[in-house]
Amino acid sequence: MDAGTSPRERYRAQVRAEIKQHAWEQLATTGVAALSLNAIAKQLGMSGPALYRYFASRDELITDLVRDAYRSLADTVRSAFDAGADVAGLAHAIRKWALDDPQRYLLIYGTPVPGYHAPDDTTTISDKVMVVLIDAFAAQPRNGPVSAPASRRALSFWTRVHGVLSLELAGHFAGMDVDPAQLFADEVDTLL
Amino acid sequence: MDAGTSPRERYRAQVRAEIKQHAWEQLATTGVAALSLNAIAKQLGMSGPALYRYFASRDELITDLVRDAYRSLADTVRSAFDAGADVAGLAHAIRKWALDDPQRYLLIYGTPVPGYHAPDDTTTISDKVMVVLIDAFAAQPRNGPVSAPASRRALSFWTRVHGVLSLELAGHFAGMDVDPAQLFADEVDTLL
DNA sequence: CGCTTGAGTTAGAAGCTATAACCAGACGAG
DNA sequence: CTCGTCTGGTTATAGCTTCTAACTCAAGCG
Predict the structure, then answer these.
(1) Nearest to B50 by CA among B17, B82, B15
(2) Does the keyword Transcription regulation apply (chains A, B) (predicted)?
(3) Integer distance in angstroms from CA A72 to C1' C11?
(4) B119-177 confidence digits (pLDDT tens)
(5) A14-46 burial by CB neighbour count: b if 16+ within 10 A, else e?
(6) What is the pLDDT of residue A97?
(7) A127 vs B contacts (CB less than 8 Å)
């Protein structure tokens, strides 16, 4: 196994992984806006510009993190679906994933960085999440006599989940005397 | 009128207004993350640290902008309500306000800046928006036999509006062959 | 065994927020 | 009218950021 990997390549891959590891830790605490390559380099014991051997720019590192976040979410939803969860189960799996690392959720679904434009393949990966949701709604028994197509219902599902979830993560329910978990559950129930 | 204002105070107020004017322009194009006090100072013809005579820090300027944004949104929704708009009308007024300056919407309802903590009075102002919504739902004729209180329905309204709106502003409907306006209208309709 | 490749270094440019020290002009009090 | 204070502006500077350039040194490949 790993026949074609030279020692150099393996070292490089490992350092890249360590960089991303520290990037995730820093991201979880400070958010993506304050993610500093210098700080990561210091934590790794190397100084400043050495990181540019592994990531051409700060944006490229962030792009990699975005890709991984999308993949992680898609995998989470997919495995929940494969485990037999219904649509409501998927919603709670998504919420659990988001609360597990709020900054990771905000990284992909939060305010986009104005200058930064995501590469095409990230949008391809982001579609994977929607694909699972559409599958789930196609398998879901329909309620009314005439019902919107699964893709349309999945989209509506997604906007509602994101609506309550993003407001919760942003702390907009703070002084409002409302239980976010209950509100989320209620909002999911109205979809059925 | 303006009896107690000395010439100094009037000048100071005017410069503050000019600073905020340029801040809004810069915000609309580059977003809050890239808002630069230096750049604003240059545009005003003064150099760098002079701005600190008017705003103690970058955060204080942003706080002022946040306050104004909340006020503007609350006024918009209030006047729409006073003009006789129903709940759906309020939703479209909100969407119009958001599309009019997306960065202004994201400033208050987007990803919060990790270090920055909003002062108490900004949350007080943000409540004003909810108050109008609750008023609108209290005036709305109820549909079902038993219905949730107006505050609860207003909250649900708000999460749905924000859900579809924030995804639209973030560009997450880009390659999805979906009309955001239609999706928004549909989502609002399901509330009735 | 030598040559090439690449990982790491320091130096430095350009930008940012923010503070310190200073200067000059306008304002209010006597 | 004059004097002193207060304030809006300046430049210099510290410390942070991303990122480029030039260089060194060692590891790996042929």
Answers:
(1) B15
(2) yes
(3) 41
(4) 888 989 999 999 999 999 999 887 666 788 999 999 999 999 999 999 999 999 988 99
(5) ebbeebbebbbebbeeebbbebebeebbeeeee
(6) 98
(7) 175
A130 Cβ under 8 Å from any chain B Cβ: yes
Q: Where are the domains of chain A?
A: 1-55, 58-189
Distance between CA A21 and CA B80 in Å, rounded? 49
Task: Report pLDDT digits (tens) over A92-106.
Answer: 999 999 999 999 999
Say which residues have a Cβ less than 8 Å from residue B12's Cβ, sequence separation at least 6: B54
Among the CATH numbers 1.10.357.10, 1.10.10.10, 3.40.30.10, 1.10.540.10, which is that of B58-189? 1.10.357.10
CA of A64 to C1' of C18 (A): 33
Residue given tokens 């989940």 in the structure block: A161
Tokens read off for B178: 């979906």
- DSSP string of A101-126? SHHHHHHHHSPPPSS----HHHHHHH
Assign residue B154 a region (left: φ > 0; alpha: ψ between -120 and 50; beta: otherwise): alpha
Which residue gives the smallest C-alpha to C1' distance to C15?
B38
